[in-house]
Specification:
- The protein contains two helices and two strands.
- About 30% of the residues lie in helices and about 25% in strands.
- The protein has a two-stranded antiparallel sheet with strand order 1-2.
- The two termini are about 15 Å apart.
- It is an alpha+beta fold and about 60 residues long.
- The radius of gyration is 16 Å and the shape is flat.
- Strand 1 and strand 2 form a beta hairpin.
- The protein has one domain.
Length: about 60
Amino acid sequence: MIEDLEERKRALDDFNQCLRPGAEELSMEAVSKCLAVEIAIAEMTGRQEIEKKRTYWRYRFHP
């Protein structure tokens, strides 16, 4: 879990921008009411099927 509020704000703002490009930054009040968890990914691969317009992902997390 990300305890530092400034680090949590950066993580939440980055995540928010991925989902809503151009979104405003979150207020510190909103950040203090949210949690953020850092997940370490050991491996991530994917393949894209052009005909179906899909990308399939396979991932493995660190223990």
